Amino acid sequence: MVVGRESRSKYSTHIIAVEEEVPTCMTENSADDEQESMITKPLLNDDHDCFSAKGGFRTMPFILANEAFAQVASYGLQPNMILYLTREYHLNMATGSNIIFLWSAATNLMPLLGAIVADSFLGRFRMILFGCAISLLGMALLWLTTMIPQAKPLPCYESDNKCSSATSFQLFLLCSCLGLTSIGFGGIVSSSLAFGADQLQKAGGQNNGWVLESYFSWYYALCTISILIAFTCIVYVQDNLGWQLGFGIPVMLMLLSTLSFSLASHLYVKLKAKSSLIVEMLQVAVASYRKRHIELSTECLKMLYHHHRGPAICLPSEKLRFLNKACIIIDPERDLTTDGTAADPWSLCTVNQVEDLKSILKVIPLWSTGMIMSVNSSQSSFSVFQAKSMNRKFSPNFEMPAGSCSMFGVVGAVIWIPLYLQIILPVASRILGRPVHLSTRKRMGIGMALSFLGMVVAATVEAKRRSLAIREGYSDDSDAVVDMSVLWLLPQFFLIGAAAAASATAQNEFYYSEFPRSMSSISSTLSLLGMSAANLVASFLMNAIDELSKLGEKESWISTNVNKGHYDYYYWVLAGLSMLNMIYFLICNKAYGPGKEDKKETTFHEQDD
């Protein structure tokens, strides 16, 4: 219990003297409000305390145009990249897919690193501008590879079907281009949404909450439209008008994105960089490691904890006790400054920081269950090769590009949300005779089940396509088109897209309900980190399957010749892993126990009764 509170004139923060470690002794809301006030107060000082002079609705066209052009340009490069690597650089399917997996991993990881740099050093405006410039450079260099003969291998000789391999320099240049686009995309995505919200902090007066909600809705709607345009128009140009124009358009769009953002520079509210939540998490880890030799005892020994200034006092919880070392004050004269802050934030952290890290570590097992779903949704390279060998003609004058099939995953994600809200829940409520609400973790489970079904359907359709190709005599001709409509691929895309929508929204809601309000922005960071890790896992799995299936000099399941390979077996492996992942999810869900969402629902039912 708390036996005393020392108030030192030299140290303005409170220091708690305790004889026994006790649970958190402040309400969660008070902790959140206190931390929120400390986070938001610095944002309104200095030369940015007058929002009426800058920011507001007039900046929205520039910010949204910047994001829309950047999204179309970036996503326009992705669907057909496997074809560019295999046709122009003569890479096999496994090597090309590996490059794309690593590129996707970097693209999903860079927004996390960009957020740290923006929040702690550069600020959001500079980070977006930096991202635009780096993306433009990467896309321009990639465009040049289509025009400079020395930048890629010589074309294959049709007479003897011999192809020269790409040199180390050519591959280095290619990977550098892709790496620059990932870094630039991360710089834009990490700060664009929050930067737009900064401009609307005072917009709408009392209706500011509605203004922000409307902005977020339009932002995500615009992103979805941009991706659909990229997967259709840009891919169509690449397929029918060539790589030079197909890669040149994204360069022009990225240039427009950079210019549209720069033109309104004098209108923006530019908040100064502050401490990043992610950096604070790292500080806890480093501080607890530095103090690893300190013994945590349950005996009646006085312990001093560092915490936020304010009347509410918080003590570290008993879970993951080793992290509590990070907030223990050993020598107040040395550890604290005259204003009560930590002299070295990498050696002494607040109790709030420690508890924030604990809340993240607690959800890690459940977070990890989403990786296999992301692995399933990252198999677009294989789908492009399947679609390329199927009948894609919808009229004598129109043939759908193979890379455009990815748009059906986006359509599936868009359809799932109204389907769930307007049909599934009302029908279930009518059948059961009471309002039905599925918890976030149940919806995460539904997403995993849909992802499993998507892999089963993908394996079944591919087995049918492959057998038909062999029956028609195309086993040695990977460019042949079998008498099977590409529409057979729609169910798997819809299922994978719906799975992603169901699970992603549920995960974000779950994190939002479990974390303190000051950590609400961490949910998108965790999702991006999960997708980045999933791409690395996908690369490892594909390499392992490729090597094992080639034993005994057999044709690899991951063959560049889609008719000789066994993509169906590969999909069945992913389906099996998805089934094991659902079991793992059930175990993690049970181990997690009741969350804050469950407690609120229990309280609601008790009051209702």
Automatic annotation (TrEMBL):
GO cellular component: membrane
InterPro entries assigned: MFS_trans_sf (IPR036259), POT_fam (IPR000109)
Record-linked SUPFAM superfamilies: MFS general substrate transporter
Annotated PANTHER family: OLIGOPEPTIDE TRANSPORTER-RELATED (PTHR11654)
Membrane topology: Multi-pass membrane protein
Family membership noted in the UniProt record: Belongs to the major facilitator superfamily. Proton-dependent oligopeptide transporter (POT/PTR) (TC 2.A.17) family.
Protein name: Protein NRT1/ PTR FAMILY 1.2-like
Transmembrane segments: 99-118, 124-144, 171-197, 217-237, 249-269, 407-432, 444-461, 481-504, 569-587
Signal peptide span: none
Gene Ontology molecular functions: transmembrane transporter activity
Key words, A-Z: Membrane, Transmembrane, Transmembrane helix
Subcellular location: Membrane
Species of origin: Coffea arabica (Arabian coffee)
